[in-house]
Amino acid sequence: MRIAAARMGGEVGTARFEHKTIRKLQWRVLPFTFVLYVISFLDRINIGFAALTMNKELAISSQQFGFLAGIFFFGYVLSEVPSNLMLHKVGARIWIARILVSWGLLATLTGFVRTPHQLYWMRFLLGLAEGGYFPGIVLYLTYWFRRREQAQGIALFLTGLPVSSILGAPLSGWILDHVHWMNLGSWRWLLILEGVPAIVFGVVTYFYLPSRPAEAKFLSEEEKNWLTGELQKEERAKQAAHSITALQVLTKVRVWHLGLIVFTVNIGVYTLSFWLPQMVKSFSSGYSNQSVGWMVMIPHVAGLIGMVLISRSSDRKMERRLHAAIPATFAGAALVSLGATHSVALTIALLAIAAAGMYSVYGPTFSLPSEFLCGYAAASGLALVSMISNTAGFVGPYITGWISQKTGNLRLGLLAAGISVLAGAVLALVLPKKVKSSSASADQEPT
Questions:
Q1: Domain assignment of residue 256, given as a range
Q2: What total number of domains does the chain contain?
Q3: Residues contacting residue 417 through CB under 8 Å, at least 6 positions apart
């Protein structure tokens, strides 16, 4: 009886220790990477708000705007894989700081362009500078969190995506309406002012962000040893089951499958991110830019709530397939339905459903590569998923701009985005019902 009680007490003590350590990680690592992602996504999509006044000043057509919004991603996808391999080699603290300072300088300089062609080049270079950040942080989180915490950890980091719009939309609208310093257009100040935080936080990152748990001063030696042991245990199990190189991972069908799921969803996400301000402005020419910002914020609030709830459920049940497919289905249906209404309230409601569904796909999907990849293979695989998925950043906005210019109807572009998101739901449904455990034999793993 006493032995059983002692054993039970030991198990309770261990569970408390584990919970305390994981909570400490969540509070120390996730908020900072979250802030960095808010800055990252804001610098990526603020061109959508700048367009409200920039397009007229630079004589940019709808099709040209779709191209300049999307050309960012040409540079972005080129840098992702090599950047992640460099991060794994030199360490997260140095490499992430370098990424932030580089993109901050370019984001700020974009405010001084004089022609559409200069703007094209600056957007391309901005993508090249920023491209390694997202896959780098997803890889970085695998250095700190076990499989069972990864979907929620990734989703909490990715909440920076809707939060960047929740905070950035009204801020961008206010800048456009009120900042006209030194005879420069307000859209120029929008790009300049929102680029500065990346430079500042790049310097902070170098001094603040530990690369690995062994460097974490906020953990006790006991916590470091336990966490390092747990992560090494998972790493050895994955290596035993799936011993592949960084180059071999590029031929893994499952990696490409995951990339295509996020690609189809990102068609919808980036279409909304770049075109939503213009769509809301089209409701009435009487809306101020700041009012547009407040309305654009609403769908992203719904997206934030959806991301958190779905990722928690996915981790609790250790299920990824349906947690990606069901939200994508609702999102695609909402986007397709937009063409049937001209009510402002109903349009915003459908956009909220779409945003909640699309954002909710990220946590479950991006937690999957680390369940069968490790080391340089994980770095390469996560970057490949991100590279494939982010080509949607060009395809979605450009197709929407082309359709809008040819038909004069922006909602038809959103219809195309909705069909793409529904295709993503189908791709998610054909994932394996349960990811094979790390102890599964290598020949059981699909290639």
A1: 10-213+221-442
A2: 1
A3: 267, 268, 271, 272, 335, 396, 400
The answer as to whether 366 is a domain residue is yes
The pLDDT profile of the chain, 447 residues, written as one tens digit per residue, is 544 444 445 555 678 888 888 888 888 888 898 898 889 888 888 888 899 899 999 999 888 988 888 898 888 888 877 888 888 888 888 999 999 999 999 999 999 999 999 999 999 999 999 888 888 887 888 888 887 777 667 767 778 878 888 888 889 989 999 998 998 899 999 999 999 999 999 999 999 989 888 888 888 899 999 998 888 887 777 666 555 666 677 778 888 988 899 999 999 998 888 888 888 887 766 778 888 888 989 999 999 999 889 988 888 888 888 999 999 999 999 999 987 777 888 989 999 999 999 999 988 887 777 666 666 677 777 778 878 888 888 888 888 888 878 887 777 878 889 999 999 999 999 987 765 443 333 333 333
- Both tokens of residue 100? 């932030």
DSSP secondary structure, 355-410, as one string: HHHHHHTHHHHHTSGGGT--HHHHHHHHHHHHHHHHTHHHHHHHHHHHHHHHHS-H
Residue type, 245: T
Helix, strand or coil, per DSSP, at residue 338 = helix
Report the 10 Å Cβ neighbour count for 343. 10
Identify whether the C-beta of residue 314 lies closer than 8 Å to the C-beta of residue 323. Answer: yes
Task: Identify whether 447 is part of a domain.
Answer: no
Give Cβ neighbours of residue 12 (< 8 Å, ≥ 6 apart).
none
Residue 5 belongs to some domain of the structure: no
Contact 371, 138 (CB under 8 A): no
CATH number at residue 437: 1.20.1250.20
**Does 4 map to a domain?**
no
Let me know: does 45 contact 97? Beta carbons within 8 Å: no
| CA angle, residues 173, 37, 154, in degrees to nearest 5 | 130
